């Protein structure tokens, strides 16, 4: 796990509207024999699946988060079978975007989706996914935005700390659109025909849960238990765990779980500091991690950690996850009116990156990252201002 | 294993000490490279190893092990390594019927009382083979990681009891070694974890504590390693010996250097 983040950002402060994302890597599919380009018929198990790319570093299959800029920060790429765990920002505006980008990327790549929510009907969530930006439109949009952005920057050269001035701009443009990682227009909805062509499963808790009177006491909250069984069934029936290998083309299962830990799931971890079900959430995550580790799946989870009273649970959840990313929105905070932050909507904290099948991880050198939602695009940039104040 | 770390600890695979409990602790950083070190070290030292791997899969350790020169698959096949893969069996154990015993059966229980089945698994795995021939050198128990047991509902006291029973059997009776990893929750005020960490710190002969740098992220120095040699069974007036180094993790090795002496800085 990387050392503590940069100056200025109180990563653990309860006042911050931090949202965190974490992913956990799950795969145990690995290449045997020499590292060929994948055309080996003798025993290689890293088949080529749409929307994935094999990692040269650790033999993992990699998928995109739906935000190429984020892919790059998270060690180039998100490896498959991860817990992608995000804390929700306080007003729940930006982290649902990450959630939706992840799912939209799944649709574009032809992956199967599994959407679980206790709050919103998964069918409705699907309707709200962003539309993909087509290649030529994409370039035009980005050029426009980059141009608008660049002009004020060049005038403030003298105010920028030399350290930041010399570091490369992180802003990513779709320079060479590829099938790995796409760009999305947050202002438009995904076309209906793409949804209809996709394969997805929904888990809407109010529909799935039976009357509480019939429930036997168990170490897991009833909602979590049902969800776990649901996910296990899908993985088994559709062969994501390698059962029925000859049945069909291998594919990735993208799982999205919304608001995990909230009272809507029947968990009281957000309600009290010492809750009865204090282990329910972490146990669920562990079992889910085990499920994901033995199947071809990637998972994104959003969690309202700013509501969780007991900070120790957040630490435990972080240890159970592979990647943790923080989104700190400026809305409603004093930073909203701070002139230093005027170009941005919030900060991104990459809190944890996994070391999967490796001693090292691909950490980005840059830790001061801010994001902004431009008219259409969600971009991530190096925070270009001083972290100490200058006397003007 | 990392030769530089062996030098710092003054051990070699030929001259491994016996009867010791080593505590690995990480605070605000990832100390798992130490687990890989000790796993490959003891396999190279021809010890029989029982690895309770709760947090990562077999293939993860195997792939890293290959970079460090050991094959876990081979070790497992010839009986040198007994590997309990928590993640793989977790779902099966959880949904299994209550009567079937399993080392991880505490997963099924709402309030697990103790880790006796897990201890019995370890004892069975490391007990000497009856044919009288000493095929392997001393037995070693490796656990990654103990803090996870707290997340799964086991109490800190139950975990400490488990460690105590394992120490009695593995370290004292079988003259073997134990290496366990515990996370330090730091600011998060995880009381149960603190109890576990403090309890183990007092019992350990060697503590390796990795910490992130206080000043934040650095590309060339990944963290700081504090090595503390202790003599828990002897009340001693002399201070335990302690050394601090900084380290940088590379693809197949870890380099250690004195504070401020990173090659990048010099």
TrEMBL record, chain A:
Cross-referenced InterPro entries: Elongator_complex_protein_4 (IPR008728), P-loop_NTPase (IPR027417)
UniProt pathway annotation: tRNA modification; 5-methoxycarbonylmethyl-2-thiouridine-tRNA biosynthesis
Signal sequence, renumbered to the chain: none
Composition bias, Low complexity: 1-22
Location within or outside the cell: Cytoplasm; Nucleus
Pfam family, one: PAXNEB
Main location class: cytoplasm
Residues covered by region (Disordered): 1-47
The keyword Iron appears for this protein: no
Positions of transmembrane segments: none
Keyword tRNA processing attached: yes
Subunit structure: Component of the elongator complex which consists of ELP1, ELP2, ELP3, ELP4, ELP5 and ELP6.
Record function comment: Component of the elongator complex which is required for multiple tRNA modifications, including mcm5U (5-methoxycarbonylmethyl uridine), mcm5s2U (5-methoxycarbonylmethyl-2-thiouridine), and ncm5U (5-carbamoylmethyl uridine). The elongator complex catalyzes the formation of carboxymethyluridine in the wobble base at position 34 in tRNAs.
Family: Belongs to the ELP4 family.
Name of the protein in its database record: Elongator complex protein 4
Species whose genome carries this gene: Propithecus coquereli (Coquerel's sifaka)
Underlying gene: ELP4
From TrEMBL, chain B:
Subcellular location: Cytoplasm; Nucleus
rRNA processing as UniProt keyword: no
Pathway: tRNA modification; 5-methoxycarbonylmethyl-2-thiouridine-tRNA biosynthesis
UniProtKB keywords: Cytoplasm, Nucleus, tRNA processing
Record InterPro entries: ELP6 (IPR018627), P-loop_NTPase (IPR027417)
Main location: cytoplasm
Highest taxon of source: Eukaryota
Gene Ontology CC entries for this record: cytosol; elongator holoenzyme complex; nucleus
Record bears the keyword Cytoplasm: yes
GO biological process: autophagosome maturation; cellular response to stress; homeostasis of number of retina cells; inflammasome-mediated signaling pathway; locomotory behavior; motor behavior; neuromuscular process controlling balance; neuron apoptotic process
Protein family (similarity comment): Belongs to the ELP6 family.
Job of this protein: Component of the elongator complex which is required for multiple tRNA modifications, including mcm5U (5-methoxycarbonylmethyl uridine), mcm5s2U (5-methoxycarbonylmethyl-2-thiouridine), and ncm5U (5-carbamoylmethyl uridine). The elongator complex catalyzes formation of carboxymethyluridine in the wobble base at position 34 in tRNAs. Involved in cell migration.
Subunit structure: Component of the elongator complex which consists of ELP1, ELP2, ELP3, ELP4, ELP5 and ELP6.
Protein name: Elongator complex protein 6
Biological source species: Propithecus coquereli (Coquerel's sifaka)
């Amino acid at each position: 796990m990387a050392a503590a983040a940069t100056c200025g950002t109180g990563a653990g402060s309860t006042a911050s509207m931090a949202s965190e994302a974490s992913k956990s890597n799950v795969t145990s599919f690995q290449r045997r024999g020499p590292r060929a380009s994948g055309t080996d018929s003798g025993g290689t198990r890293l088949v080529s699946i749409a929307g994935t790319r094999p990692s040269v570093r650790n033999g993992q299959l990699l998928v995109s988060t739906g935000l190429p800029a984020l892919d790059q920060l998270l060690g180039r790429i998100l490896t498959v079978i991860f817990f992608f765990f995000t804390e929700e920002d306080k007003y729940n505006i930006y982290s649902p975007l990450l959630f939706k980008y992840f799912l939209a990327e799944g649709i574009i790549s032809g992956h199967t989706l599994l959407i679980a929510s206790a709050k919103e009907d998964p069918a409705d969530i699907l309707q709200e996914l962003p539309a993909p930006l087509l290649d030529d439109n994409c370039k035009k949009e980005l050029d426009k935005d980059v141009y608008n952005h660049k002009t004020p920057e060049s005038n403030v050269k003298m105010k920028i700390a030399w350290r930041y001035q010399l570091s490369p701009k992180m802003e990513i443009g779709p320079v060479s659109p590829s099938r790995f990682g796409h760009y999305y227009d947050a202002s438009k909805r995904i076309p209906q025909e793409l949804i209809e062509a996709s394969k997805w499963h929904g888990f809407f808790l109010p529909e799935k849960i039976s009357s509480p009177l019939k429930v036997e006491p168990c170490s897991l909250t009833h909602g979590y238990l049902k969800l776990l069984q649901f996910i296990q069934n899908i993985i088994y029936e559709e062969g994501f765990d390698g059962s029925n290998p000859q049945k069909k083309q291998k594919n990735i299962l993208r799982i999205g779980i919304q608001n995990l830990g909230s009272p809507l799931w029947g968990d009281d971890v957000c309600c009290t500091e010492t809750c009865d079900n204090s282990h329910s959430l972490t146990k669920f995550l562990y079992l889910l991690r085990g499920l994901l580790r033995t199947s071809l799946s990637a998972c994104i989870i959003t969690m309202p950690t700013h509501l969780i009273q007991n900070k120790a649970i957040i630490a435990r959840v972080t240890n159970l996850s592979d990647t943790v990313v923080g989104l700190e929105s400026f809305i409603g905070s004093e930073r909203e009116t701070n002139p230093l932050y005027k170009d941005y909507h919030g900060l991104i904290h990459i809190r944890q990156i996994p070391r999967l099948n490796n001693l090292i991880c691909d950490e980005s050198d840059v830790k001061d990252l801010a994001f902004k939602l431009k008219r259409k695009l969600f971009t991530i940039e190096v925070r270009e201002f001083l972290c100490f104040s200058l006397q003007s | 294993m990392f030769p530089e770390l062996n030098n710092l600890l003054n051990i070699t695979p030929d001259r491994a000490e016996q009867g010791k409990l080593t505590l690995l602790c990480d605070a605000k950083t990832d100390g798992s490279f130490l687990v890989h070190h000790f796993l490959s070290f003891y396999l190279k030292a021809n010890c029989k190893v029982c690895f309770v791997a709760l947090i990562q899969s077999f293939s993860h350790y195997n792939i890293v092990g290959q970079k460090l020169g050991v094959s876990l698959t081979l070790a497992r096949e010839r009986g040198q390594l007994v590997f309990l893969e928590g993640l793989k069996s977790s779902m099966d154990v959880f949904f299994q019927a209550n009567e079937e015993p399993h080392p991880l059966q505490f997963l099924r229980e709402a309030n697990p009382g103790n880790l006796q089945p897990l201890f019995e698994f370890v004892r069975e795995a490391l007990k000497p083979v009856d044919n009288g021939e000493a095929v392997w050198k001393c037995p070693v128990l490796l656990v990654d990681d103990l803090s996870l047991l707290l997340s799964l509902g086991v109490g800190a006291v139950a975990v400490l009891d488990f460690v105590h029973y394992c120490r009695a059997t593995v370290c004292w009776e079988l003259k073997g070694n134990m290496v366990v990893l515990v996370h330090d929750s730091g600011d998060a005020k995880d009381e149960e974890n603190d109890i576990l960490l403090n309890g183990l710190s007092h019992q350990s002969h060697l503590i390796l504590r990795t910490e992130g740098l206080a000043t934040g992220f650095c590309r060339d120095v990944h963290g700081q390693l504090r090595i503390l040699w202790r003599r828990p069974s002897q009340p001693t007036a002399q201070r335990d010996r302690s050394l601090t180094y900084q380290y940088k993790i590379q693809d197949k090795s870890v380099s250690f250097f004195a504070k401020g002496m990173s090659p990048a800085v010099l």
